[in-house]
Amino acid sequence: MRRLFLFFLSLVLLVGFNACSKNKYKLTGQESDGEAINKCMKLSKKKKFEEAIECFEIFKSRFPESTYALDAELRIGDSYFQNKEWMLAGESYALYAKLHPNSPRLDYAYYRAGLSFEKQLPKTIDRDMSTLVKAETNFAMVFRRFPNSPYAQMAQAKFDEMRGKAAQRNVYVGRFYYKFGEYRAAIPRFLLILQDYPGLGFDEEALYRLALSYRKLGLEDKAKAAAELMQEKFPESKKTKKIVKKILGGNRG
After folding, report:
1. What's the predicted TM-score (pTM) here?
2. Which of 38, 68, 79, 156 could hold 49 in an S-S bridge, CB 3.0 to 4.6 Å?
């Protein structure tokens, strides 16, 4: 009997301990705003991100006027980010920036939004790149609006990287249209490279394909103009020599 009693006693104590452990970081409604935000942050540090998000949401509703309220909103985005829920993280940071345009941490929100949208990009350029513009826009907001921000330099580097991906994407699509004889669809892509993404390493390819596309459509004047510009910019290129021979008759250069 004594052994049975001790067994049940230990079982009751174990259940009670587990219950206390589970409730250790739960908001009871009796905490101050400082105590409450600390409980939420401890959940996040323990990588209990879903519970942390719930905790921060409850904190926002209970302490809307707290000095920690804005921080709680950012922490929700951080928890989504740490849990690799990139879409929810990006939207959380973007919403924060929209709702709090005068926040002292706006640079952080834009930067993290940019990172979140970047994380959603596929590894290959032929997949859906719909979040590319969002990433580029948010990175640009950081270094343009907050040049002295500790995130400005990193945002500039990320912005340049996104522009390179955008240029590469347009080249890919332009080549695709060209390959299947859709020259009128290909031309705007190559023009976009020259107008919006110059100097990123794709100008030569864009001019080459542009000249050939115009030639295929019988637009000889435009084809010659593209070939001449290519000859001016890339005089030693093998592609230039090909295009000069094909369009300019090999009479120049």
Report:
1. 0.80
2. 79
Give me the residue spans of the domains in the chain.
31-77, 84-169, 181-253
Q: Is 85 left (phi over 0), alpha (psi -120 to 50) or beta?
A: beta
CB 189, CB 170: distance < 8 Å:
yes
Q: 33, exposed or middle or buried, with CB in 10 Å at 0-12, 13-18, 19+?
A: middle
Sequence-distant (6+) residues with CB within 8 A of 218 are none
Q: Give pLDDT, residue 10.
A: 41
Alpha carbon dihedral 40, 45, 50, 54, in 10-degree steps, equals 10
**String of DSSP letters for 197-247:** STTSS-HHHHHHHHHHHHHHTT-HHHHHHHHHHHHHH-TT-HHHHHHHHHH
Provide the residue count of the chain: 253
Closest CA to 142 of 131, 152, 150, 127: 152
Q: Are 169 and 128 in contact (CB under 8 A)?
A: no
Residue 200: count of CB within 10 angstroms of its CB: 16
Tell me the per-residue pLDDT of 114-172, one tens digit each, with 9 for 90 and over.
999 999 999 888 888 889 999 999 999 999 999 999 999 999 999 999 999 999 999 99
Residues with Cβ within 8 Å of residue 252, at least 6 apart in sequence: 228, 231, 244
Element of type H or E holding 192: helix 183-196
Handedness of CA 207, 208, 212, 213 (dihedral sign): negative
63-75 residue pLDDT tens: 999 999 999 999 9
